[in-house]
Description:
alpha+beta
Amino acid sequence: MNKESTANKTSKKRNKVAIIISAILAAAQLGASAWFSYTLIKLNILQPWQNSVIIAILALLEFLTVYKLIISKKTRLAPRIILSVLSVIISAAAVVGAQYIGQATSFIETITGDHYEDMAYKVLALKDSKISDVKQLDSKKVAFLTTDPNCEKAKNTLKDTVKYVAEDSTDLATMIASVTENKVEAIVLADSYIDTLEENKNEFATNHKVIYEFTVRVEAKAEANRVDVVKQPFALYISGSDSRNGISKTARSDVNIVAVVRPAEGKILLVSIPRDYYVQLHGTTGTKDKLTHAGIYGINMSKTTIEDLLGISINYTLKVSFDTVIKIVDKVDGIDIDSDTKFTAWTNRSCKFTVGVQHVGSDCALAFARERYAYTAGDRHRGENQQQVITKLIDKITSPHYITRWMDIMKAAEGSFETSLSYDEITDFARFQLSELKSWKVESISLDGTGASMPTYSMGSQNLYVMIPNQETIDAAKAKIAEYLK
């Protein structure tokens, strides 16, 4: 009797422990399932009925777990162990899924949030000047370029470090001459201007030294003209920044493509505009400038300048860094490009291209997109290469094989691009693509022109290589864009 009593007590104790463990597992499963359901609804890329089905399945599994593990007294030990293991598996899967979805949500929130551009500045003195520290400029004359839209912010930022005397200049060449002729002790220039100077005037770097650096942060305003992106055609401006220091840095726009999308028909028109196109920057008068220099003033200047050129309203912008190409191509296992010329890439000598179709990885895809010296058409041919790379990427990431890897693709590209598309517009479009699994048809055209040497708005009286627009190609592009947007 005592042995039987002891056995009953032991059995009850085991049952009690089993119920406690079962309750903990059920609670963990409930929490994990609830977290997964929340992230799934927040991401919002599935149809509402699909979300409902998934949540209903999770709820059913939770009910069965609770009923069998806790409520039902008939459940024996072996089934209880199996259900416990199943509960752990469900909980783990829900946690991993929630984290995975949460990363995608965070990524979309990052690229669609409030954006700022950091404009890096350098204070420069003559190489042989006795000035070697910014503090030595106290009460000394320092020249600023007033055509820089952030000139006043740069002045105020430097004032926090040293009390200098500001000298305004409206022409870059005159400003450089002022320090050479000892009219001022130093000049202040944004990195974008310095890059262009060094590209076109090699002696600038050898004649000057950097004595101080600072950054000015400005709000990046790329206004959106919103439409229903799954039903209405829209225009997206793609700006390829040449910044190697992050997407937030202002830099020249070396890639300028207008993508006109017709979602209902699954059609995209890519209009490539040469970086050296000689255009009137929006809101300026007098001397024209290279289109690439518009990026110095922020993405909205590039957008509005192209709107003026093509006579259209661009709905959204997408700013991309060179790093993006590398990261995305890696995630889609490379792309097949078709080269019409045999050459060794100027920017990456390890990339050697033959005539015809060839599979390339990320580094060589980027080199192909940046090549212009191998072609007699120069920048015009580079624009065609860029369109080809974009087209191949669209084909890959919208195919059923890679649609399930969008999360990985987006994570890899995090920090590499920004857009004025909203969170809801991106998820609406992703949901549309998932439901339709469209195979997009991409059409490409390019604007053309003739080379010339002209002064520019940004760089002043110094003559630079520019491309004088061919109006016939502009008119043809306008007609094609109108056809897609109607």
